[in-house]
């Protein structure tokens, strides 16, 4: 039910045809936001957009012009952009190392965020500021032996967000990341045995969306919020490396 929390906002969510992205798009729309649903799976993306009264834009986040088109759609259809959720992501899958799968994961999870930020900045600047939330993962904060490539891309997103955020903060643009543990979506289907062996409880998607809203309403800049079952989301307290002089 619409509660008006986002009634003056326009949002863009990538990877919004399914899982966490679809749930975030729905929550924003429930709050009154006008939402651009961006995904490379058209049928499901169109269904989500129709359901929430938003607009679907075909977007493969690996392609810079697709991300630009998604941001331009927000401006053309809704008059601007306030919130960008760079959420599209994939796991590696398969056995052993494969260069094509490696490139696909890096291109989706890292390039998608890098291109996404560049694509949305002009529209956010035109509004005098806004918020970008990149979907990283707990997998970016710890070793991930069951999918090292995935872990590497999420760690890269964490550091990119921390490094880039100060560059745009002066323009009123807040860039932060969310790092959830395992959440109940199809992306974990290949890992259910591992998750069971680790004894890690699985988040509900609604828990991730709740944490997303906490990040959205926080005042932090370049923060990476960790989220696990039963623990409130909180920014990771990164230690500073020892300086050259010891
Ligand atoms: P999902 O598989 O349910 O949804 C991913 C969405 O991204 C799908 O709609 C898919 O079509 C879209 N997508 C994939 N590649 C794309 C591309 N190149 N261009 C545009 N869209 C693309 O997975 P889920 O769980 O909702 O994942 C969303 C994000 O959350 C991902 O970045 C994932 O890494 C992250 N995440 C997920 C966790 C989980 O356990 N479910 C935990 C931590 C982070």
What brief labels describe this structure?
246 residues, alpha/beta, Rossmann fold, eight-stranded mixed β-sheet, 7 helices, 17% strand, globular, binds 1,4-dihydronicotinamide adenine dinucleotide
How would you characterize the overall build of this protein?
The protein is an alpha/beta fold. The chain has a single domain (10-235), classed as NAD(P)-binding Rossmann-like Domain (Rossmann fold, 3-Layer(aba) Sandwich), CATH 3.40.50.720. The protein has helices at residues 19-30, 42-52, 64-78, 99-126, 148-169, 192-198, 205-217; strands at 10-14, 34-39, 55-58, 83-86, 130-135, 173-180, 224-228, 231-235. Strands 3-2-1-4-5-6-7-8 form an eight-stranded mixed β-sheet, with helices on both faces. The relative contact order is 0.12. The structure holds 1,4-dihydronicotinamide adenine dinucleotide. The site of 1,4-dihydronicotinamide adenine dinucleotide has 28 residues, from α1.
Number of strands: 8
Structural class: alpha/beta
Residue share in β-strands:
15-25%
Find the CATH topology. Rossmann fold
User: What is the residue-averaged pLDDT?
Assistant: 96
Which geometry do the CA atoms define?
globular
Level-2 CATH architecture: 3-Layer(aba) Sandwich
What is the CATH first-level class name? Alpha Beta
Task: Give the topology string: H per helix, E per strand.
Answer: EHEHEHEHEHEHHEE
Outline the fold blueprint.
Layout: E1 10-14, H1 19-30, E2 34-39, H2 42-52, E3 55-58, H3 64-78, E4 83-86, H4 99-126, E5 130-135, H5 148-169, E6 173-180, H6 192-198, H7 205-217, E7 224-228, E8 231-235
Parallel strand pairs: 1-2, 1-4, 2-3, 4-5, 5-6, 6-7
Antiparallel strand pairs: 7-8
Bound molecules: 1,4-dihydronicotinamide adenine dinucleotide (NAI).
1,4-dihydronicotinamide adenine dinucleotide (NAI) binds at residues 14-15, 17-21, 39-41, 59-62, 87-90, 108, 135, 137, 180, 182-183, 185-188.
């Amino acid at each position: 039910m619409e509660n008006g929390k986002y009634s003056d906002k326009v949002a863009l969510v990538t990877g919004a045809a399914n899982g966490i992205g679809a749930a975030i798009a729905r929550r924003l729309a429930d709050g009154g936001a006008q939402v651009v649903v961006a995904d490379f799976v058209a049928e499901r993306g169109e269904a989500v957009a129709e359901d929430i009264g938003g607009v679907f834009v075909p977007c493969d986040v690996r392609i810079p012009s697709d991300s630009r088109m998604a941001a331009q759609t927000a401006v053309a259809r809704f008059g601007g952009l306030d919130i960008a959720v760079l959420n599209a992501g994939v796991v590696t899958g398969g056995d052993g190392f494969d260069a094509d799968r490696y490139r696909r994961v890096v291109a989706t999870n890292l390039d998608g965020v890098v291109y996404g930020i560049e694509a949305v900045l002009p529209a956010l600047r035109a509004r005098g500021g806004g918020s970008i939330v990149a979907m990283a993962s707990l997998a970016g904060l710890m070793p991930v032996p069951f999918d090292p490539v995935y872990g590497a891309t999420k760690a890269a997103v964490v550091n990119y967000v921390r490094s880039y955020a100060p560059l745009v903060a002066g323009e009123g643009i807040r860039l932060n990341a969310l790092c959830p543990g395992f959440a109940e979506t199809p992306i974990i289907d290949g890992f259910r045995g591992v998750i069971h062996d680790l004894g890690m409880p699985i988040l509900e998607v609604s828990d991730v969306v709740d944490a997303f809203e906490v990040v959205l309403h926080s005042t932090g800049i370049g923060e990476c919020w960790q989220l696990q079952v039963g623990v409130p989301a909180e920014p990771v307290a990164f230690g500073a490396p020892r300086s050259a002089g010891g």
